[in-house]
From TrEMBL:
Phylogenetic lineage: Bacteria, Pseudomonadati, Pseudomonadota, Gammaproteobacteria, Pseudomonadales
Domain of life: Bacteria
Domain ArsA/GET3 Anion-transporting ATPase-like per the UniProt entry, residue ranges: 8-330
Catalytic activity, as annotated: arsenite(in) + ATP + H2O = arsenite(out) + ADP + phosphate + H(+)
Family statement drawn from the similarity comment of this UniProt entry: Belongs to the arsA ATPase family.
Annotated stretches, region: Disordered: 183-202
Name of the protein: arsenite-transporting ATPase
Length: 335
């Protein structure tokens, strides 16, 4: 029914608390059982992937099952690593008297809105673009929807942030001319003369400025390449998880429309925690009646997408044994 797991990049998103991590983990277990070398990555700063898998995870790949590794990206570590790289570049072009102020500015930048997202985006882009990767499939367990949309639809943020930092350089006037050339379409992923690696567009610039410009070009290319992989429906697909409740439905409808408007392929929605048909009791009967209205609304508002339903489990899903049970249900639903 679905070819989601046949793609190289799978994104699992949705409102907080709807079961994204459980579904991401179960899909990864299912893919690994089919012999795919799979990496599942949590991009949510409030990680729960390790809890779901019953394993202690960190920022490096941890083997969970044969064919299955897992990572919880540490956004603070990504910010530190990125600022360290930028500061190292700045030292090469700024005088020693300027460095204390630059370092102070960098620390202020660390706390500015969007810094973690920008650092996460760079890490994700490197995973997406790694053509030498040992994995056949990477499943991203993403943060709640708003965060994910910023990550996926605003790759220009990182370039703008870097440009802003470089503007403090004493070469700002000269660099400003370079940056103007680098953003002919406000950073959108459009062909530019700089896409040709054999063509030197900065032959008239001094060595320092050329080096800075090349750094910016490399970063811009990183995000452009990631964006192209993300938009390719043969390579990438998005699955939204929601529960039959008002707020998750509203958020999912908006998020699906937003992703589709920017060319991100949405493959399906998965309606999670549907009350089983054989659940008994007056309380559940009344809950099922309310749920039926929401299921009908989902069918109406997301009619263009597949909408398989995953039943509510009797207990919390935690650990590999429980995930294998969910993986079996997903397989029966056509994944």
């Amino acid at each position: 029914m679905f070819d989601l797991l046949d793609r190289r990049l799978v994104w699992v998103g949705g409102k907080g608390g709807v079961g994204k991590t459980t579904v991401s983990s179960a899909l990864a277990v299912l893919a690994a059982s089919r012999g795919k070398r799979c990496l599942v990555v949590s991009t949510d700063p409030a990680h729960s992937l390790g809890d779901a898998l019953g394993r202690e995870l960190d920022d490096s790949a941890t083997r969970v099952l044969p064919n299955l590794d897992a990572i919880e990206i540490d956004p603070d570590a990504e910010v530190d690593s990125h600022l360290k790289r930028v500061l190292g570049q700045m030292r090469r072009f700024a005088s020693s008297t300027m460095m204390p102020e630059l370092e102070r500015q960098m620390q202020l930048t660390r706390q500015s809105p969007g810094t973690q997202e920008a650092a996460l985006l760079e890490r994700i882009a490197r995973l997406i673009n790694d053509r030498e990767s040992e994995y056949d499939l990477i499943i991203f367990d993403t943060a709640p929807t708003g965060h994910t949309l910023r990550l996926l639809t605003l790759p220009e943020a990182m370039a703008a942030w870097t440009d802003g930092l470089l503007a403090h350089n004493r070469k700002s006037q000269e660099l400003g001319k370079v940056l103007k050339h680098l953003t002919p379409k406000s950073g959108r992923d459009m062909p530019t003369p700089f896409d040709d690696p054999d063509k030197d567009q900065f032959s008239d610039l001094d060595e320092r400025t050329r080096e800075v410009a090349q750094t910016l070009i490399n970063r811009r290319r990183l995000f452009h390449q990631a964006r192209r992989h993300l938009e390719d429906p043969k390579e990438s697909g998005f699955l939204f998880v929601l529960t039959p409740e008002r707020l998750p439905i509203l958020e999912t409808v908006r998020a699906v429309a937003t992703l589709e408007s920017v060319g991100i392929p949405v493959v399906a929605t998965l309606v999670n925690r549907v009350i089983p048909e054989d659940a008994d009791g007056e309380f559940l009967r009344r809950r099922r009646e309310q749920e039926a209205t929401y299921l009908e609304r989902i069918d109406q508002e997301l009619a263009r997408l597949p909408r398989p339903r995953l039943p509510w489990m009797e207990t919390d899903v935690q650990g590999l044994e429980a995930l294998q049970e969910v993986a079996g249900q997903l397989e029966r639903l056509g994944f």
